[in-house]
Structure to design on (266 residues):
């Protein structure tokens, strides 16, 4: 059985400008707003399937096309070219530690815009892989009530300091911690246990700062694990998900929907 996939049917693109940055944003659905930030290599069929699932569960979903070609299927060459472009893009600051990335300002502007156009007290943000940490950085804005970090991979964990880096600046993280303490903000984090791209050290840092405000789901991908995940298992909500009862990635997706529903309902 393959992971769920979908095409661009029903998604309406329009350019959005925030913090001086312009990207097309694909929108669909009704109900409270959720920003779904694509993973490498872009808004591929797995990301679109996740978006459709959120729409089916009563959300308005906005997918900003930050890189790649919307709807294009994943291939090795396509993924490598997207990574290469992301590495040199100033708005992502792929290797920088303690960095307020320009894209986080764009996403906060998008969150405010989506919140103004949808019902509910605020919006959710799901980031994945390269964009995982962007979800928490977006929560420095009061419009974001439900950030979800799935396998956050920036800064690329090539050194010890980068493995421990939370993926956003200290200024942004301090605001998020303050919101968690004073306003009851909660976040979710997802990873596979053996995923070196989303290292345990990063989650340790986030847990130390956010405490019980961060719910972490870690799926066993160690050698010989029950569900047969390989050592390179990475994408919890897309490529590794199977529509099989009891599948841990499916259960993680179900929990994300529960989290969004609880946080974004009046």
């Amino acid at each position: 059985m393959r992971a769920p996939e979908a095409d661009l049917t029903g998604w309406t693109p329009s350019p959005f400008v925030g913090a001086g940055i312009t990207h097309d944003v694909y929108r669909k659905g009704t109900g409270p707003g959720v920003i779904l930030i694509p993973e490498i290599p872009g808004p591929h069929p797995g990301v679109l399937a996740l978006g459709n699932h959120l729409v089916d569960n009563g959300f308005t979903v906005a997918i900003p096309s930050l890189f790649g070609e919307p709807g294009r299927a994943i291939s090795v060459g396509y993924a490598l070219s997207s990574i290469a472009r992301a590495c040199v893009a100033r708005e992502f600051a792929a290797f920088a530690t303690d960095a307020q990335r320009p894209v986080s300002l764009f996403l906060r502007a998008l969150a405010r815009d989506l919140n103004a156009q949808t019902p509910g007290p605020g919006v959710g943000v799901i980031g994945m892989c390269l964009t995982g940490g962007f979800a928490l950085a977006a929560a420095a804005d009061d419009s974001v009530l439900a950030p979800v970090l799935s396998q956050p991979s920036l800064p690329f964990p090539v050194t010890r300091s980068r493995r421990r880096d939370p993926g956003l600046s200290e200024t942004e993280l301090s605001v998020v911690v303050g919101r968690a303490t004073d306003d009851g903000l909660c976040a979710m984090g997802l990873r596979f246990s053996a995923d070196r791209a989303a290292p345990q050290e990063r989650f340790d840092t986030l847990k130390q700062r956010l405490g019980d405000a961060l719910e972490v789901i870690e799926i066993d991908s160690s050698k010989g694990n029950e569900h047969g995940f390989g050592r390179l298992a990475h994408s919890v909500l897309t490529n590794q998900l199977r529509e099989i009862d009891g599948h841990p990635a499916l259960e993680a997706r179900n929990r994300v929907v529960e989290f969004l529903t609880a946080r974004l309902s009046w």
Notes: The radius of gyration is 17 Å.
